[in-house]
Specification:
Length: 269
């Protein structure tokens, strides 16, 4: 018997290394795959799109906000992997009647690295986890050198429309923005993803840059035009939301993407 405490403070006890895993978080599904645990994954969500082939070979157990409990029960999982933000407290509590649930709570890069290390212990893949965290740390160090001397830009990171919602302070996205030398004009707003009135952007921070995420809302050119009207000529850029919000192994790719993004931002309008 081994005992583990997840990132919400909940303790689980496992009699042996889990062999049947249900993952309810797309970025953590990708992480489990990259740790060499594809054969142990038995259930995933419809939003677990990386790697692409998993959706055709693994059981789909619903989404992140609405899961099919009976489908999960029939899979007889040894462990269920969840996330505090992606999955509701009610879902997590109900799932604990089926199997032990390990729940992540990711706000900082260190939170993500801690999760990877913990997965290394839980699933007996310590070497793979250590190699992955080394690669991520190297990528971060390299990117910080790349950013050295670059100025900071006031910006807004939009995630939703009707109502308009942005990434706030207590988010992993905000941490990634800071590494890019982006000053979030809404980082002091209450809530992780506050609603904003875009007509007030000029007086609330006058952003120089607007980032429109590819997920969860698919922003279009007309949205960029509309938002840009409420700034003093801010540059509007469509960005890959996975690179900003997918914690885990996606970070290995994120910092190369950020270098390209920085080059795009510096290009003349």
């Amino acid at each position: 018997m081994k005992t583990y405490t997840d990132q919400t403070g909940h303790t689980i006890t496992l009699p042996e290394t889990p062999k049947r895993i249900v993952s309810l978080v797309p970025s953590q599904t990708e992480l489990l795959y990259d740790l060499g645990l594809e054969d142990s994954l038995v259930g995933i969500t419809k939003f677990c799109v990386h790697p692409y082939h998993l959706k055709s070979v693994k059981k789909i157990v619903g989404g992140t906000k609405k899961v099919h409990y009976e489908k999960i029960r029939l899979l007889q999982p040894d462990i269920i992997i969840a996330n505090k933000e992606e999955n509701t407290e009610e879902i997590v509590n109900n799932l604990r009647e089926i199997a032990p649930v390990w729940t992540s709570d990711i706000i900082t890069i260190q939170d993500s690295l801690d999760m990877i290390s913990e997965f290394g212990k839980i699933f007996a893949v310590r070497t793979a986890a250590a190699q992955l965290t080394d690669r991520i740390n190297f990528a971060i160090t390299d990117f910080k050198k790349f950013m050295a001397g670059k100025g900071w830009l006031r910006m807004v990171y939009f995630i939703w429309k009707e109502p308009y919602m942005v990434a706030g302070k207590e988010t992993f996205i905000n941490e990634m923005m800071q590494l890019n030398h982006f000053t979030n004009i809404y980082e002091n707003r209450e809530g992780r993803y506050p609603e904003v009135i875009v007509q007030k952007m000029r007086i609330q921070g006058d952003p120089e840059l607007l980032l429109l995420s590819s997920e969860p809302y698919p922003f279009k050119d007309e949205d960029a035009f509309e938002l840009g009207r409420h700034t003093h000529h801010a540059k509007t850029v469509f960005v890959d939301g996975e690179m900003f919000s997918w914690y885990g192994s996606r970070m290995v790719k994120a910092f190369a993407y950020f270098k390209q993004l920085q080059d795009r931002i510096e290009e003349p309008a």
